[in-house]
C-alpha cells in the first residue's frame, strides 16, 4: 500500500544510510530488497554498478518512458537533530535524493501492480553529486536495450511550498564543471617571507581574481558563477605554506561561456605562476551538460499537475547542475522541481523537507506516466 505512512518509512530508512557516488552499496541493497518484494510478473530488474534499472512492461508497450532518480548522498555532517538522522558520519542526504528514491519506489509499486499502457524504465542512478553517473549509465548495454522514447526526473525545491511544482520549457539547469587547483611554491620561516614563495598569498589572490572572469569576461546577458567551496593550505601559524589547494565549481548558462571561463582560468594561472614563482595544476573533475527541457513534454506535464489539483508555476533558470542533462541531450526529456518547504536549503546540514510532499509527487509521477500519449 502506497500512502503517506509507507512513503515516510521508506524515506526515513534511506535517509539513515547516505553514501557517496559509486559507493551506494547499502542503498542499492535496500532498493533491491524493496523491488524484489513487489509483484514480479510485469517487471525485470538489472543492476548497473551501484545503480539499478527496472523495466515495467506496459499493457500496450508501444512506447517506453524513462524515469530517473539519483541515489547518492553528500559529504556533509547532518545537523537536523531528527530521530532518523544519518547513521553515516560526515554523510547526509542534503540534496533530497532520499526523497527522489522514495517517490520512484512509490510510483514503481503502483505500476508493478497495475501497469500503464506504456513501458516504463526506472533508472536508479548513482553519483549525481559526482563524479557523474548519468553519462556512463546512458552508455550501458541495459540502457541501449531499454532505450526510452522520452525521459524525466525531478528535484526537491526547499524554497517552494508543498503542493507547488515548477518547471519550464528550454534551459532549466546550468552547465557545470568541478574545479581543483593545486599550487606549489617554496615554504619557509614566517619571519623571512622574502626567501619563500608563499602559496597562501598566491592562492588567495587567485581566488579573488577568479571573480573578475565572471565580471569582465562573460557576456552579462549570459551568466556564469565560479564558487570556491574549499581551500587548504599550510601546516602551522609560523611556517609559510609550500602548497595550497583550491576546490570549486564553475556554472554557466551556455557551453560557449564554459569554454571562455576555462580559457581565462588557464591564463590567470599562467600569470599567477609568473608573479608568484610557483607551479599550478588544474583539474576540471566532473563536467555536466545543461538540462534543456522539451517544450511539448513540459506542456503535457503542466496539464497533469493541474488536473491532479496541485499548483504549477513557471520555474526560473537555475545555476544548479544535474547530470540528467546528458540524458535530456540524447532523449526528449524534462525535469521538474517539487515543493518541499524547508527553511534550510539544498546542500545545507539542516535541510528538512516536508514528507507530506511525497504522496503528491507519487501522484503526479504516476498520473503523468499513465496519461502520456
Ligand atoms: C542539484 C544539485 O545540487 N546538483 C549538484 C551537482 C554537482 C555537480 C558537480 N559536483 C559540481 O560541483 O560541479 C550541484 O551542485 O548543482
UniProtKB/TrEMBL annotation:
Keywords: Amino-acid biosynthesis, Diaminopimelate biosynthesis, Hydrolase, Lysine biosynthesis, Manganese, Metal-binding. One of its GO terms (biological process) is diaminopimelate biosynthetic process. Its EC number is 3.5.1.47. Belongs to the peptidase M20A family. N-acetyldiaminopimelate deacetylase subfamily. GO terms for molecular function: metal ion binding; N-acetyldiaminopimelate deacetylase activity. Its cofactor is Mn(2+). It comes from Halobacillus salinus. This is N-acetyldiaminopimelate deacetylase. The active site is at residues 70, 129. SUPFAM superfamilies: Bacterial exopeptidase dimerisation domain, Zn-dependent exopeptidases. The lineage of its organism: Bacteria, Bacillati, Bacillota, Bacilli, Bacillales. Gene3D superfamilies: 3.30.70.360, Zn peptidases. Signal peptide: none annotated. The keyword Metal-binding applies. It comes from the Bacteria. Mn(2+) binds at residues 95, 97, 129, 155, 347. The Mn(2+) ion enhances activity. Residues 181-269 form the Peptidase M20 dimerisation domain. It catalyses: N-acetyl-(2S,6S)-2,6-diaminopimelate + H2O = (2S,6S)-2,6-diaminopimelate + acetate. Catalyzes the conversion of N-acetyl-diaminopimelate to diaminopimelate and acetate. PANTHER family: N-ACETYLDIAMINOPIMELATE DEACETYLASE, PEPTIDASE M20 FAMILY MEMBER.
Amino acid at each position: 500500500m502506497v500512502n503517506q505512512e509507507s512513503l515516510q518509512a521508506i524515506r526515513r530508512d534511506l535517509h539513515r544510510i547516505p553514501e557517496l557516488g559509486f559507493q551506494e552499496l547499502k542503498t542499492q541493497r535496500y532498493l533491491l530488497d524493496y523491488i524484489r518484494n513487489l509483484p514480479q510478473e510485469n517487471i525485470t530488474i538489472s543492476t548497473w554498478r551501484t545503480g539499478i534499472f527496472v523495466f515495467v512492461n506496459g499493457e500496450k508497450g508501444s512506447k517506453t518512458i524513462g524515469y530517473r532518480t539519483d541515489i547518492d548522498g553528500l559529504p556533509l555532517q547532518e545537523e537536523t537533530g531528527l530521530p532518523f538522522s544519518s547513521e553515516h558520519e560526515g554523510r547526509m542526504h542534503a540534496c533530497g535524493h532520499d526523497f527522489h528514491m522514495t517517490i520512484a519506489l512509490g510510483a514503481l509499486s503502483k505500476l508493478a501492480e497495475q501497469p500503464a499502457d506504456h513501458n516504463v524504465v526506472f533508472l536508479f542512478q548513482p553519483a549525481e553529486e559526482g563524479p557523474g553517473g548519468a553519462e556512463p549509465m546512458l552508455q550501458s548495454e541495459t540502457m541501449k536495450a531499454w532505450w526510452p522514447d522520452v525521459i524525466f526526473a525531478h528535484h526537491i525545491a526547499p524554497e517552494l511550498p508543498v503542493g507547488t511544482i515548477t518547471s519550464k520549457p528550454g534551459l532549466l539547469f546550468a552547465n557545470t564543471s568541478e574545479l581543483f587547483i593545486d599550487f606549489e611554491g617554496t615554504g619557509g620561516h614566517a619571519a623571512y617571507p622574502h626567501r619563500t614563495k608563499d602559496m597562501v598569498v598566491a592562492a588567495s589572490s587567485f581566488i579573488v581574481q577568479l571573480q573578475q572572469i565572471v565580471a569582465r569576461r562573460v557576456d552579462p546577458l549570459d551568466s556564469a558563477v565560479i564558487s570556491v567551496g574549499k581551500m587548504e593550505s599550510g601546516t602551522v601559524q609560523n611556517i609559510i605554506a609550500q602548497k595550497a589547494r583550491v576546490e570549486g565549481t564553475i556554472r554557466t548558462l551556455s557551453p560557449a561561456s564554459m569554454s571562455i571561463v576555462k580559457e581565462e582560468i588557464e591564463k590567470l594561472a599562467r600569470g599567477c605562476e609568473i608573479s608568484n614563482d610557483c607551479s599550478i595544476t588544474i583539474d576540471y573533475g566532473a563536467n555536466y551538460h545543461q538540462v534543456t527541457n522539451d517544450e511539448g513534454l513540459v506542456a503535457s506535464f503542466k496539464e497533469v499537475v493541474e488536473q491532479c489539483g496541485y499548483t504549477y508555476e513557471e520555474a526560473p533558470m537555475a545555476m544548479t547542475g544535474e547530470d540528467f542533462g546528458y540524458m535530456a541531450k540524447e532523449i526528449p526529456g524534462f525535469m521538474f522541481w517539487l515543493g518541499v518547504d524547508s527553511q534550510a536549503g539544498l546542500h545545507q546540514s539542516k535541510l528538512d523537507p516536508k514528507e507530506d510532499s511525497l504522496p503528491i509527487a507519487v501522484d503526479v509521477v504516476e498520473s503523468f506516466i499513465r496519461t502520456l500519449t
